[in-house]
């Protein structure tokens, strides 16, 4: 069975350090898009990135004594297929959480 080719597609990529805020924002976006009649795929969890930083605890001696910090970035992807015009207007008026970075690709 051949796949259907969609003319318009909005791809929304979400990034954040807090998993709960990210999932809540993704749920708000999908509910808003479904309410306007668009077909929504996702949220799709993308691989998380982990950055580890190692610092010395003491400024002079004790080189073996170190402390490690970790920065975890969570990612989600939402695709909106063949959106009507009111979907974009509804997404523009949506107020989302502060700890979430959003990138739209149309």
UniProtKB/TrEMBL annotation:
One Pfam family hit: Ribosomal_S10
Domain of life, per lineage: Bacteria
SMART domains reported in the protein's UniProt record: Ribosomal_S10 (SM01403)
Membrane-crossing segments per the record: none
Record flagged with keyword Heme: no
Subunit annotation: Part of the 30S ribosomal subunit.
NCBIfam families: PRK00596.1, rpsJ_bact
Protein name as catalogued: Small ribosomal subunit protein uS10
């Amino acid at each position: 069975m051949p796949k259907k080719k969609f003319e318009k597609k909005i791809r929304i990529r979400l990034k954040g350090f807090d998993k709960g805020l990210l999932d809540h924002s993704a749920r708000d976006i999908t509910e808003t898009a479904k309410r306007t009649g668009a077909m929504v795929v996702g949220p799709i969890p993308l691989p998380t990135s982990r950055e580890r930083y190692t610092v010395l605890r003491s400024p002079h001696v004790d080189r073996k004594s170190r402390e490690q910090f970790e920065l975890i970035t969570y990612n989600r992807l939402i695709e909106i297929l063949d959106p009507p015009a009111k979907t974009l207007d509804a997404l523009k008026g949506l107020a989302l959480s502060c700890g979430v970075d959003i990138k739209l690709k149309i």
